[in-house]
């Protein structure tokens, strides 16, 4: 088994542990990430609209 597979499994395991151990914090983290992505997308849309 190569190092990449081991690190992938370890990462997935940590995410699953976090989801099971702290579901409210995990949900808040996902909401924060999606909010940030939405804000970035809106800023990009505004920028492109201003070009035309």
Terminus-to-terminus distance: 52 Å
Average residue-wise pLDDT: 94
User: How helical, in percent, are the residues?
Assistant: over 70%
By DSSP (H or I, 4+ residues per run), the number of helices equals 2
Radius of gyration: 17 Å
Secondary-structure-based class equals mainly alpha
Q: Note the overall shape.
A: elongated
β-sheet strand percentage = under 5%
Number of strands: 0
**SSE order:** HH
Regions with little confidence, pLDDT below 50 for 5+ residues: none
Tell me the major beta sheet. none
Architecture overview:
By secondary structure, the chain is mostly helical. It is 92% helix and 0% strand. The longest helix has 29 residues, at 23-51. The radius of gyration is 17 Å and the shape is elongated.
Which helices and strands occur, and which strands form pairs?
Elements lengths: L2 H19 L1 H29 L1
What structural keywords apply?
92% helix; mainly alpha; elongated; single chain; 2 helices; 52 residues
Short summary of the structure?
It comes from Saccharothrix hoggarensis. This protein has two helices and no strands. It is an all-alpha fold and 52 residues long.
């Amino acid at each position: 088994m190569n190092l990449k597979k081991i690190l992938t499994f370890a990462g997935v395991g940590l995410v699953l542990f976090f989801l099971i151990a702290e579901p409210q914090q995990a949900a808040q983290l996902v909401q924060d990430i999606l909010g940030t992505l939405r804000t970035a997308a809106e800023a990009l849309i505004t920028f492109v609209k201003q070009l035309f």
